């Protein structure tokens, strides 16, 4: 009897233990719509986060040389002993190992971009047939590992070998933008594009925010002689990201084994319901190159890159040589404008999606955002050269200009996805390649202008040229840009 009395509780007890598991499984299965899935459980948000980190790593690897070169170069030797009254009092302003002219520094800074642009268009075509994940992950891994060779190349091989190593890093980073765009086109529904695109591409600013001040600290206090530690630390961090990205992220929702079916169905139906099979089967190059909307993006992209590369590569030098700020503080100050751009990019992204949901046209929204993003920095560049006596005003103007520049991620930068989700990777590969060819001339032009006369008058000319490029290209976009799907 005792045995018989003990039998009934066993199933009940087992049922009690199984209940939480069944409830958890049921909760996972029973989402009927995508909106019911918590944001933290939507796989596309995880993909967005990983792409954000990838973009941050890419820009860390791109911008750390801008700060490192300030510590690498012996400025007293190249400017003359009386060029800077503060030079004798500040060892880190002139204690670098290399006597490289401003002109040569411009070529070293530009060498990365030569490699970067070469791979843009080939990968734009390749990802259409082979996917974006592996090109992005393995390309960034090459970029990360080659970073460890930068100190050796500079010390043993001189500027030629340093340029070659930076060129190789650029080759590895080349797939980042077309592959990112292709993955956004596959993963992000149209009503979320502005904020997702802003979040991912704002990783560029986040990476710069991390790179600038930390590079300054490493240059002043790091191991292996200071500035070499910049490349060792960031190279290791970027390598770690590559491993996790290749392991955890898939090319699209259809290939993912981690995504819920309701989220997969929502993404696929939102993006591809209006895309015909015929359009997906061929690449309409003739139509693309005859479209004024495409050329409008090209102009805006090129103008932005010229102005942005002017600031990104030359701002640390301007702060060091005109405002006489030491290397450690230089990195911190140089990062402030990018912090503003990162935060404002997110704000503009949410604002743009809000306007689109409120039935403001996609075309009007893109042009409005683009106006903030290009006209704003142009005006600030025109002003900043006349407040060189005040470090505070200089940084305020730079910060406002770069903050407004964050609107471009909800303007032309995401506009490729509006024109064609199917060919977004190829479209941005073409515009990004051209824009970077234009952009890589910025540090060379600036370097040549200040080479013989590193005075404030020369810097004003550098800023004036960048401002004019911004203004002209923004106007072209506002006249010819479009947010309507074309291919």
Automatic annotation (TrEMBL):
Localization, UniProt: Membrane
Example of a GO cellular component annotation carried by this entry: membrane
Pfam families, A to Z: MFS_1
Predominant localisation class: membrane
Alphabetized CDD domains for the sequence: MFS_SLC17
Organism of this sequence: Drosophila busckii
Region (Disordered): 1-31
Function: May be an inorganic phosphate cotransporter.
Name of the molecule in the record: Putative inorganic phosphate cotransporter
Keyword Membrane: yes
Example of a GO MF term: symporter activity
Similarity-based family: Belongs to the major facilitator superfamily. Sodium/anion cotransporter family.
Signal peptide: none
Compositionally biased region (Low complexity): 12-25
Domain (Major facilitator superfamily (MFS) profile) ranges: 43-485
Coiled-coil region list: none
Alphabetically ordered keywords of this record: Ion transport, Membrane, Sodium, Sodium transport, Symport, Transmembrane, Transmembrane helix, Transport
Domain of life: Eukaryota
Any one GO BP annotation for this protein: sodium ion transport
UniProt topology in membrane: Multi-pass membrane protein
């Amino acid at each position: 009897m005792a045995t018989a009395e003990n039998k009934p509780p066993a199933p009940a007890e087992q049922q009690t233990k199984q209940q939480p598991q069944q409830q958890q499984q049921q909760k996972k299965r029973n989402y009927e719509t995508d909106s019911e899935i918590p944001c933290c459980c939507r796989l596309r948000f995880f993909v967005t986060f990983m792409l954000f980190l990838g973009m941050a790593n890419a820009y860390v690897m791109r911008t750390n040389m801008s700060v490192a070169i300030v510590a690498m170069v012996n400025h007293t030797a190249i400017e003359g002993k009386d060029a800077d009254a503060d030079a004798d009092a500040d060892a880190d302003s002139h204690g670098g190992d290399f006597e490289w002219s401003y002109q040569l520094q411009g070529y070293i800074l530009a060498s990365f971009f030569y490699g970067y642009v070469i791979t843009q268009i080939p990968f734009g075509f390749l990802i259409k047939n082979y996917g974006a994940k592996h090109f992005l992950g393995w390309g960034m891994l090459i970029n990360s590992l080659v970073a460890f060779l930068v100190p050796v190349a500079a010390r043993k091989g001189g500027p030629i070998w340093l340029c070659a190593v930076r060129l190789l890093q650029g080759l590895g980073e080349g797939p980042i933008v077309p592959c990112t765009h292709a993955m956004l086109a596959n993963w992000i529904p149209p009503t979320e594009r502005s904020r997702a695109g802003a979040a991912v591409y704002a990783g560029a600013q986040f990476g710069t925010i991390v790179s600038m001040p930390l590079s300054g600290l490493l240059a002043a206090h790091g191991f292996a002689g200071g500035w070499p530690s910049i490349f060792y630390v960031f190279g290791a961090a970027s390598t770690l990201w590559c491993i996790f990205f290749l392991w955890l992220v898939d090319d699209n929702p259809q290939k993912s084994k981690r995504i819920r079916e309701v989220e997969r169905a929502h993404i696929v139906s939102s993006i591809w319901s209006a895309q015909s099979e015929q359009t997906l089967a061929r690449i309409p190059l003739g139509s693309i190159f005859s479209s004024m909307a495409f050329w409008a993006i090209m102009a805006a992209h090129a103008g932005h890159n010229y102005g942005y590369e002017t600031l990104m590569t030359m701002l640390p030098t301007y702060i060091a040589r005109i405002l006489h700020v030491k290397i450690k503080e230089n990195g911190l100050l140089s990062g402030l404008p990018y912090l503003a751009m990162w935060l404002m990019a997110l704000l503009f992204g949410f604002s743009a999606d809000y306007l689109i949901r409120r039935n403001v046209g996609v075309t009007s929204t893109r042009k409005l955002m683009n106006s903030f993003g290009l006209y704003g920095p142009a005006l600030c560049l025109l002003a900043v050269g006349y407040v060189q006596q005040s470090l505070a005003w200089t940084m305020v103007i730079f910060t406002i200009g770069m903050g407004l520049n964050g609107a471009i991620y909800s303007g032309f930068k995401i506009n490729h996805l509006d024109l064609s989700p199917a060919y977004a990777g190829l479209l941005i590969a073409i515009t990004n390649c051209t824009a970077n060819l234009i952009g890589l001339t910025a540090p060379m032009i600036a370097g040549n202008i200040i080479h013989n006369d590193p005075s404030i008058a020369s810097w004003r000319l550098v800023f004036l040229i960048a401002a004019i490029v911004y203004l002209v290209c923004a106007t072209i976009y506002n006249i010819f840009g479009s947010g309507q799907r074309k291919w």
